[in-house]
Amino acid sequence: MDTETEAPRGGEMVESPFLKQLVAVIRAEDTHGQWDNKTDIDLLEEFIITKEERREMPIIGDPEPEVIWRLTRFYDAVGLLVEKRSGCMATQMQNMHHEGFGRVVLIAGRLVVVSKHLRDVHRFGFETWAKLAQAGEKLVDDAVKLIEEFPEAAKA
């Protein structure tokens, strides 16, 4: 019997400082040790949404609390990695409508280092591990560049 091996959901896992930070943020939420036996991939798998899964989702929908939780953890990881790289604490602020649109900003001192308009939050996720890592790392890199460009505002 000839069976084809199916590629893992989300493709091959990639090494990424952002993914490591995201796992650390998620594990920090586990105050009772319920996720101690879960692998990093187990904790991050809900961030992966394949093309097929996205097609099955309605175009318009209200985000579930779990999706908002994932979105918040994603931007928490961005903020913490910005702080590690720049020395400036980046705090997240979110304003989300119950229908799944809104805005997320990360502020370092008096400087807005990330400003992202969101829509279709009920479909929040990434097709591959690489795309998840790239999205987080790009936000971090751009935020750190802003802090380097405007250090007085970021440290105010």
What are the key terms here?
Putative cytoplasmic protein, 3-stranded antiparallel sheet, alpha+beta, single chain, 156 residues, globular, disordered N terminus
Q: Please, could you describe this protein's structure?
A:
It is a single chain. This protein has one domain: Protein of unknown function DUF269 (Putative cytoplasmic protein, Orthogonal Bundle), CATH 1.10.3100. It contains six helices and three strands. It has helices at 17-28, 40-44, 51-56, 65-86, 129-149, 151-154, and strands at residues 90-96, 102-108, 111-118. A hairpin with a 2-residue loop joins strand 2 (102-108) and strand 3 (111-118). Helix 1 packs across helix 4 and helix 4 crosses helix 5. The longest helix has 22 residues, at 65-86.
